[in-house]
Amino acid sequence: MSERRKNQQAQALQEAVHALRSRQFARAEQIAASILRTARTDRAALLVRSHALLGQHRASEAIAPLEKAALRGSDPELETLLGAALCESRRAADGIAQLRKTAARRPPFLPAFQELAGRLAKSGQLGEAIAVIEEALTLSPDSVDLQLDLGRLSLQANDRVRARTHLLAAREAAPGRPDILIELAWVQFLDGDYAEAAGTYRHALGLRPEDTQTRANLAMCLAEMGDRDGAQAALRTAVRGRPHLLTRAAYTLAVTSHGRFFFRPSDAARFLQIDGAATAKP
Description:
Blueprint: H1 3-21, H2 25-38, H3 43-55, H4 60-70, H5 76-88, H6 92-103, H7 110-122, H8 126-139, H9 144-156, H10 160-173, H11 178-190, H12 194-207, H13 212-224, H14 228-239, H15 246-255, H16 265-271
Helix pairs in contact: 1-2, 1-3, 2-3, 3-4, 3-5, 4-5, 5-6, 5-7, 6-7, 7-8, 8-9, 9-10, 9-11, 10-11, 11-12, 12-13, 13-14, 13-15
């Protein structure tokens, strides 16, 4: 392959990756497929195309190329994606078997453990999913992502004590990650530690101020603390310029013990001072 052709292919691959990250799945698939037509074994293009197919709910089309590539040699990333594609194609037993096989390889490939645990949890096998992440943590005890995963799974299993333990450990290791703070705040909220949860949500909002869901959750904490004005101010900030969030905001006001209930959406819109509230339908 000429140097010019290599540069063109590399540029095309960069465009495909950008499209994939932007969730432009059809565009990413198109570019990756064009690369594969002239470079059939290009690993990166195959990965992009497979992810794009999964993003378009066409996982079954990704299976055969991934199986063929997996036969060429040990590649845990390709194998993990193959397991996910099988699961998404209603071949969950085959997909989980593939993921178990990949997770058993050494050195460990942590995404295989995470994908396996996620699939097991989705099928209701929470205990087994937790065991998978626990095993992964013994192999990589410094992994913040695994601590976060174990915290989330423990919360799904309604073991809030354990969830809090792992989420606190994750926060200590990575205090600047909003995803960890948001999960921890939710555990604190469920435990009734509203002031603590509010502080954690504020920290998360300081890192990601445009996160409207987190701001709505902060409002719930403030309302439960009896701070109606603070809760309402948080909700007004969340819905400002986003009238489509009115239902979420009204729900937040209604479900808290110190909240408000509105019979008509127009009343909620006026109360929250949403633009155009005067013309809102009753």
